[in-house]
Structures are given as C-alpha cells and as structure tokens.
Write a structure and sequence with these properties.
By secondary structure, the protein is α/β, with parallel strands linked by helices. About 30% of the residues lie in helices and about 25% in strands. It has four helices and four strands. It has a four-stranded parallel beta sheet with strand order 3-2-1-4, with helices on both faces. α1 links the parallel β1 and β2. The longest helix is centred in the first third of the chain and has 12 residues.
C-alpha cells in the first residue's frame, strides 16, 4: 500500500460526500491507497452520506463513541493507516485527481 488518506469529520455530512468523491477519483489506482474516515461522534447525517461509499474496498469508516477532538481523531487514523505515505484532509476539503501521485512520486 502506497498511501493512506485520513479524513477527519465532525458534523460535516453536508460536505463529506464531495470530499470522498474527490479522494476516490485519484489517478493512482485504488489498490494502491486507502481512505480512512474518522467520524468524531457526529450528530448530523454523516452516517447516511458515508454509507453508500462503504462498498469501496479501500474505504474504512471509524466512528468515535464520544467526541475526542480533531487531533486525537487524526491520531486514531494514523495508527490504523497501512500506507507508506500518510496525508490528512478535512471532510470539507476537495483534492485534485493527481493529489496522491504528487505525494508518492
């Protein structure tokens, strides 16, 4: 595994779909990267928005039982990352399709 994308989220259900689409639309093949979503116990519609994306084999969804903050949530993602390179994005970010190619090559 070349790269891991860590997405931290707290009540960004409105934006996370776009973020996930941009992360899945990478020029790097899907088998070479993973997307780890860390939800910090959101109370919005994040679960419903994320659910259709979970059929992608390179997406992992971790939901905190209580709100622990962005730094601790990111650290959870880093601990479960399997990529040689790791990058963190926020749930309201949009990344270019060559984002991971610039990171790993």
């Amino acid at each position: 595994m070349l790269a891991s994308i860590i997405i931290t989220n707290y009540n960004y259900g409105r934006y996370i779909g776009r973020c996930l689409r941009s992360c899945l639309n990478q020029s790097l093949t899907a088998k070479n990267y993973e997307i780890i979503i860390i939800d910090d116990n959101s109370s919005d519609n994040t679960d419903e928005v994320v659910k259709p994306f979970l059929n992608h084999s390179n997406i992992k969804y971790i939901k905190n039982r209580k709100n622990i903050g962005v730094a601790a949530s990111a650290n959870k993602g880093f601990k479960s990352a399997k990529g040689k390179y790791v990058v963190r994005v926020d749930a309201d970010d949009y990344v270019n399709e060559n984002f991971l190619n610039f990171l790993v090559y």
